[in-house]
Structure formats: structure tokens, C-alpha cells
Amino acid sequence: MKVGRKWSAVAAAGVLLGAGMASAAGEVPTTATSAAQMAVRMFPSGSSAVILCSGDPKSERSDLVAGQALAAYLSAPLLLTQSAGELGPNTRQSLSQLSVPDANPAGDEQPYQPAPGKPKVYLVGTTDSLSGSLVNQLQELGYAVQDLRTDSASALLSEVQNIVAPPLPSQADSPGFPGKWTTYAGDQAHNPFYPVPDSAPSWEKEGVMWNFPEKAAVPLSQEFPDLRQLGMRGAPVKMTQSLGNACGVTAVDGVIYAESDDAHLYALDAKTGQLLWQAGPTVNALMGNPIVGDGLVYVTAGDTGFSFSQVLKFMLSQGKMQLVRGLTYSAIYAYDQKTGRLVWRQDFQGNAMPTPALVDHAVYEATGDGHLYAFDSKAGKSLWKTDLGGFASMSSANYWRDPETGRVEIIVGVSDANNVVAVDAQTGKVLWKQPTTLNIFNTGMGDNTPTVDQENGLVFQDSVVDNDPKTNTVDLAIYAMDARTGKMVWSTKLGRGSSPPAYKAGVAMVHDGVVYVGSPATSRYYALDEKTGHVLWNFHFQNSGPAGAGRGSAVYAYDRLWVAAGPKVYALDPKTGKELGSYEPGGRFGIVNPVIVGKTMYLGNSYDWIQAIPLSKIDPTVQSSGA
């Protein structure tokens, strides 16, 4: 039977333990401690399940393909029977080794421990390859059995496909969600709040709560990463941008899309947290927001490294030779929005960590090789590329549409030299560059994403400045520029603090004449007058840790600011900065930008989890504030 590309890709991720391979499950644990630890390793999803397929060489290949797909979806091991009607001694031994211990030793609780007892066994195959007697054998041994046997191979694939790739929610069932996601953090102003209509279902109006672990998930209550192993600098760097969901999630038509450093893209049901599909692995880590539009989901893969040869050339040329960021492979991917099937891909020389922008059926990506690229959104055909005069580190493209001419400017920050650059979306022509006037430090303007006020024609960007190597302190400056000309309108320094270890800036959000931005140097969040740059108030994040806090943008919703920083999510009074409520959902947050639809906050964290939190968990008074 011919196996489609979709099935082949999913099946390749399966875990296979065949007959005669019982030792692959690990040695029989001799203590409750080792048994508990092994159970966590074998069942990373927290749900103990085993997939059982026929080991008969005469069985259909499609049986194994279906079994591998289900094993990948459930993060479960796959075992083979000895024959169509007999488990066989090796499979029995493997099953016994996969039982979860009844109790953990005192003081050694596993925070993400699967339920104790024997795993649930899924029988996957046709009735010809797997006899009904296997159900009796398993039940006699005390296993719960999910019988997925069918009369034909095609029916079996359909049965498993309904589990591993359920249909996406319909737009009618999720009326509060946006129909597309075109820029980093959802819109030009970086304020992804989507109120729901009165006709919306109750789960949207009241909020839902769930946690979904991705492939590299770490227990939410665990102290992580280990400073002793990674060092006082290495651990904060990884926590800030190299682990889990660096920048947060995307919400479109009742589906939550999220990228991960595990090189996979996930699509989840926003109501239940159920996995709808996953795609990958990609050539490198994914660190941005998925962009959704034109029936596709766009993600970019890259890394933060510099090769020694690149740094040497840069130094020998005294900065005249352009520095390229990115050690290994980088690419942009376009996946089918409904199925996760790869539609097209383009590769780059430099890193592709920034989130692309989707404007008028074209995708724009700034990379570590110092160029801005434009591609046809549906076919992936290259439209043009433009030299920016410096590399984009984590600066995702934003845009401004001139209300008088209709011309679209793609706006991005670059490092070496530290400029904000505007490029004509149609032609690739550089329209203006704004060289910053303050003493920019490190990757500067290329480390952060510009924020655009479309109505007032302003662009906001911030960067660390005035580095003092003796005290290892910096300041953070935020700039306002005219979107049409690039002319500087104002600049404000927010205060000195310890030099952040990575992603040294904060993503700004603008709403109703006020700019909100955090500084990881001071671990404070600030409100500034949009016209003057005058600081209105600031709020200090507690327990920010050695990495500092305040990188992600806030969301303005229900007359509150909602922001994730350190181990908490906060609700702040937007007029005074007073804390109205907070909640610790587990794990920690890096550059995360929360998304609010109705009364639910969706976000990801550095522990590789995707989370849905009712706003009432953060501030109980929000339920009485109306929609």
C-alpha cells in the first residue's frame, strides 16, 4: 500500500521497540526512585500509553505506519507482537518494564509524573494481522485496552488519522479569534487583544485553562536551568531566548500555533489544548511567532551564534566587512494551515530567528546575513532582496502603510551599524535609515522588534546604551521616529542596571497615546507619553533572576495591562502601574508576548509548554468588568 508524504513524515518520529528488544526500555528499575525517573523519561507527555502492532512479517506495512504515527502523537513507545495471536515473552517483559510505580519515595516527587499503574495499550492493525485473542491476553494481565483494529488498511489509517490529525475548529465556533496573524505579536502596535461578541460560546467569554507539553518540556515546578551546570551567564542566556517558546504563541480561528526550540511547530485546539497537528523537525530552533495567512503558517529557523571566521574578518576589517550571524542552517518554512504539510521552503546564509511579516500576499524576512528578503506568500518565489547595511539579530519586520499614498514600508532594526531601516515593500528600495544618536551597545537596534503606531505615523524602537564595562551596567533608551521620514521625534533613557545576558531590550506596545515597554536592565516596566517620551510611571518585577525581566510586550485589555515576566503573569493598572493581581503558572518567561482572546490568556514559556490561563486566575475582579 502506498503511504502518503504526510504519514511518512509523522511516522518517522515514532518510537520503536520490537520483539526481542525488551532491553531498549531500560533495565528493570531496582528502586522506586529509578522507576519514577524512568517513567518520566518513557512517558514525557504525562500519559502512560503503549502502542502495540503486529510483529508478523506478513502484516501490512500500513499497520506499522499507523502505529508509528500514533506513537509519535502520544509520545508513547511502540511494541511488536510475536505473531498475530500471541504477545510473546519479549513483549510481555517490555510491557512489565513500562509500568509506572505506585508511589514515589518521600521527598523525591516527580512534578510531571504519569499516573501510577500499567499503561494503556492501543492495539493498532487490521483484524488479519492482530487477533482478538490479544485483547483477552492483555486484559488478563491487567491492561486497559483501546482496540483500534479495523477490517482494512485504509480504514485503519483513517481511524488513526482522526486521532493524530483531528479537524481544525471552524471559524463559526470561535468568533472572537482573528482570521490571520500578519506580524510579530499579532499587530503593528503589538497589542494582541481580541474581544469576543455576545454570541461567542461560553468558553471564550469565561476563559479556559490547560497546559500542553512540547517535546522538550521540563516539569513546571522544577528549578531550571541548572546554574551549576550552565554557569551564571550560560543559564540566563538559555532561559531568555534559547529554550522553549521564546516569543509566545499565535491565535487564529480557534487554533493556537506555537514554535519551539525543539525545532517543531505545533497547532492546538484553543478550547481544549488538544494537539491538532505538529510539523518538523526544522533545520534549526524556532524562536518567533508563527505567521498565519493565505492558508499557510510561516515559521523561521536559526541560531544566535557567530562563527570564529566571521568575527575575525569583521575585526581585521575594523568593522568595514559586514558581520554574518548564524552558525548553522537557517530557513523559512510555509506549512499548510489545516494539515501541517510543508508547502515551500527557502534557505538563508545568515540566521532567520526574526519573525517574518505578511503584507499583501508577500512574506518579508530580515536575516543575519544583512538582507531583507521578499517572497510570494503562496508559492515561495523570491521577489527581491535588499542590503540593509547590518544584520538583523532578533529584529522582526513590522510595517507602516502611508495613508496618503498607500505605499507600504517594511521596517526593521539592524546591528553594525545600528540603524532602523524602512524599505519599500514593492520594490525593495531603501526609503530611509535612522542612525541612532546615543551610545548603542552590543547588537543594539538589531536585537529588538520595532513597534508601529499606524494612526499617528510613529515608529518605536529601544536598545541598550552607555555600557560601563567596569560596573557591567547599561542604560536602556527608547526612540520615537516619524514613520514617513525616519526623523527622530524623541528619545528617552529609562535608567541604568545590570547588563542583560541576552536579548537586551524590551518589546514596546502602544495604546491610546501611551507607549509601554520593559527594561531587562532594571527589571522594570514603564509607561511613556507617546508624544513627548515623558515617563509616566514604572513598575518593578519581583524575582526576575539573573537574566532580568521585562522583555515581552504587554496586552491592554479590560482596562488593565497584562504582562508575563520572570515566573509570573501580572495585571497592572495602566494609569498608575499599580499591581492589580498576579499568578504563577509554573516555569519562567523569556521574551514572551501574551495573547488574550475573550477572557483567556494564551502564552508559551521557557520550559517548553503552551498554556491557557483564565484572566480571573490573574485578577479575580476582571470577571465583573464586562467584555
Which properties best describe this structure?
Methylamine Dehydrogenase, Chain H, 627 residues, globular, 2 domains, 38 strands, 5-stranded mixed β-sheet, single chain, disordered N terminus
Secondary-structure blueprint of this entry?
Layout: H1 5-11, E1 15-17, H2 32-42, E2 49-53, H3 61-74, E3 77-80, H4 89-97, E4 120-123, H5 133-140, E5 145-147, H6 153-164, E6 193-194, H7 202-206, E7 210-213, H8 227-242, E8 249-252, E9 255-259, E10 265-269, E11 275-279, E12 291-293, E13 296-301, H9 308-316, E14 330-336, E15 342-348, E16 357-359, E17 362-366, E18 371-376, E19 382-387, E20 398-401, E21 408-414, E22 419-424, E23 430-435, E24 451-453, E25 458-468, E26 473-482, E27 488-498, E28 509-511, E29 514-519, E30 524-529, E31 535-540, E32 555-557, E33 560-565, E34 568-572, E35 579-583, E36 595-597, E37 600-604, E38 609-614, H10 615-618
Parallel strand pairs: 1-3, 2-3, 2-4, 4-5, 6-36
Antiparallel strand pairs: 7-38, 8-9, 9-10, 10-11, 12-13, 13-14, 14-15, 16-17, 17-18, 18-19, 20-21, 21-22, 22-23, 24-25, 25-26, 26-27, 28-29, 29-30, 30-31, 32-33, 33-34, 34-35, 36-37, 37-38
Helix pairs in contact: 1-3, 3-6
Briefly say what this structure is:
The protein has 627 residues and is of the alpha+beta class. Helix content is 15%, strand content 32%.
Polypeptide structure, described:
It is a single chain. The radius of gyration is 26 Å and the shape is globular. It has two domains: about 5-165, no CATH class; about 200-625, YVTN repeat-like/Quinoprotein amine dehydrogenase (Methylamine Dehydrogenase, Chain H). Helix 3 (about 60-75) packs parallel to helix 6 (about 155-165). With about 625 residues, the protein is of the alpha+beta class. A five-stranded parallel β-sheet has the order 1-3-2-4-5, with helices on both faces. Strands 6-36-37-38-7 form a five-stranded mixed β-sheet. A four-stranded antiparallel β-sheet has the order 8-9-10-11, with no helix packed on it. Helix content is about 15%, strand content about 30%. It comes from Kyrpidia spormannii. Pfam families: PQQ_2. Keywords: Signal.
